[in-house]
Specification:
Blueprint: E1 2-3, H1 9-21, H2 30-37, H3 41-53, E2 57-60, E3 64-67, H4 69-92, H5 97-107, H6 113-122, H7 127-134, E4 139-140, E5 145-154, H8 160-176, E6 182-190, E7 198-203, H9 207-219, H10 221-227, E8 236-237, E9 242-253, E10 263-273, H11 279-296, E11 301-310, E12 320-326, H12 329-337, H13 339-349, H14 351-355, E13 359-362, E14 366-375
Helix pairs in contact: 1-2, 1-4, 2-3, 4-5
Length: 383
Amino acid sequence: MASMDALSESAEMMIKNINELAADEKRVRTSDLAAKTDLKPATVTEMIQRLGDLGLVDYEAYHGVHLTKQGQHVADVIEHRFNILERFLTEILGVEGNEAAEVACRMEHVLTRDVEHKLTTFLGIDPKKESELFCHKINIEEDTKPRYLPLSNFNEGKTYNDLLAEQAPYEDFLKENDLQYNRINLTPIWDNDQEYDYVMWGNWPSGQDQYTEWGAYMNDYPDWAKKNDLPPQNVGDCEKGALSMRFHSLLRLRVPMEERDERMFTDWRRCKLTDDADISELKSLYAKQEELAREFGLNGYGVSMFTPYRGNQMDTDWDFLMMTHWYNTESRVNLISSYRDWRDVLTESGIWDERSKHIESCSDADTYQAHMIYNTHNVVYDK
């Protein structure tokens, strides 16, 4: 877990420049950023991609970049720091305007939160405005792994068995090329507003592994498939779009691999965050819930959240997807049979009340079967 303090000065300056060049919510061109910063376009692109990996910008090649909600908050904090420093230098120390602006620009990147608050108080800035600015803390997930979920429908006459047969050869391609990728198929069991027949859930250990595998699929797999006399892929289509998500593990009560079902129950909910939500505090609450669950005697399930990352083609009214999965059927049965007592434990502990400070609402659960197809990660895939 990293905070805003972990951002380098160059990263903060790039966010600041994007914010200054942005107009009417249009994307900023990398060429304009290169001209403003006196950096080479390739260097600008590399820096933007790193910010994208941190969830601070949305970048599309040849289409430019804009700040995400998280990135805009970073820009607002930087601007706030600059303004109070410039005021302190000019009004209190009597530093000339140009020099004050130059010094403030340097100092804004090293100002601590405590000193910032003291300066704000000293200058008589409305504390309410300051609290509004900082009510949403910056939390950058360094350990979140990319997830890709194409939403698909079967073509006429095709079935799930056809899909499994079509997917099987790709595992050989992955192993032959030492590519790390994990495939899970999600198929609906209960979904009141189901719009697709299946979801292909892809996982990579890291962003580097993701693009390595994608590059091999685009450039090498067609010749490999032709060499191995594989027919064209025509079982389904993904016209419903796809979601590229960041994965956050909230709770894990694992069972040994040999006790896990090949096909598992998963519940999915669409959730909205409150204005004051803090992901790090939410994770801490789930860590406490995990400890309580162990003491209560629960085992064999996990809770995760998925936040939109790149290429989101869907018009959504939610901030994240929450998934609860059960490693085996017995674990789900045990949780259901003891649910009322478990609910009372969570209520008495105050966890539910605390959680409501971060999660505004969640939809009813849609239940999907999660079917592990293959996994070529060098480490054991920890669902």
